Amino acid sequence: MWVLASASPRRRELLTRAGAHFITDPSGYEETNEATADIAELVRRQALAKARDVARRRKDGLPVLGADTLVVCAGEILGKPQDRAAAEHMLRLLGGGTHEVQTGLALVTAAGECTHAERTLVTMAEWPQELLAAYLAGTEWTDKAGAYAIQGTAVLVVSGICGSYTNVVGLPVHAVWRLLTGQGVTW
Fold first, then answer.
1. pLDDT per position as a tens digit, 3-54
2. Which of 99, 111, 120 is nearest to 174 (CA)?
3. How many other β-carbons are positioned within 10 Å of the β-carbon of residue 36?
4. Which pTM was predicted?
5. How far is C-alpha 11 from the chain's CA centre?
């Protein structure tokens, strides 16, 4: 048994479908998403801060996994949009090009800490105006880095992917499995 330091329903669903035995205990750590040339280092650092936050609070000694996902396009970090206008800006920026999705993973155990960063490239066609308007009229864009979920309507404009699909959904499951089992944590 181990702890996922996240409240993300997408992460829980991915792990549950993959047969993982875990509990959730969301972190209270506030992400900063400051501009940096090394996105992999930023997501690893934030994932580690989340895992440490939860590990400090818990008294059971269970291993704690933290994760942080960011979408980056043209050097701009796209976190979760604050409103519809921010979501529209993000989607227009992403349309017609290739962007990266980076997820940092951090595992805190009694034996120590380890981190990993997973990078996936996603190519999107331009959003047709009617589709973009309908998408923004709903709520699918809320609470998602880059204002989209690849497993939702956005799949209509995703023309290519290089790397882990589950990373784009919210958690690179294969990398999580390798990290945990590599440190002797039971899946």
1. 999 999 999 999 999 999 999 999 999 888 777 779 999 999 999 999 999 9
2. 120
3. 13
4. 0.92
5. 8
Tokens of 163: 């790397």
Please state the length of the chain.
Answer: 187
d(CA 9, CA 16) in angstroms, rounded, equals 10
Residue with tokens 């499951």: 173
The single-letter DSSP state of residue 30 is P
Amino acid at position 137, single letter:
A
| Tens digit of each residue's pLDDT (9 = 90 or more) over 122-166 | 999 999 999 999 999 999 999 888 999 999 999 999 999 999 999
Cα Rg of the chain (Å, integer): 16
One-letter amino acid for residue 10 of the chain = R
53 is catalytic: no
Q: Which residues of 61-78 are buried (b: 16+ CB within 10 A; e: fewer)?
A: ebbbbbbbbbbbbeeebb
The candidate with the shortest Cα–Cα distance to 167, out of 40, 44, 66, 69, is 69
DSSP string of 50-83, one letter each residue? HHHHHHHH-SS---EEEEEEEEEETTEEE---SS
Output DSSP code: residue 108: E
What's the token pair of residue 175? Answer: 């990398």
Catalytic choice (53, 60, 68, 83): 68
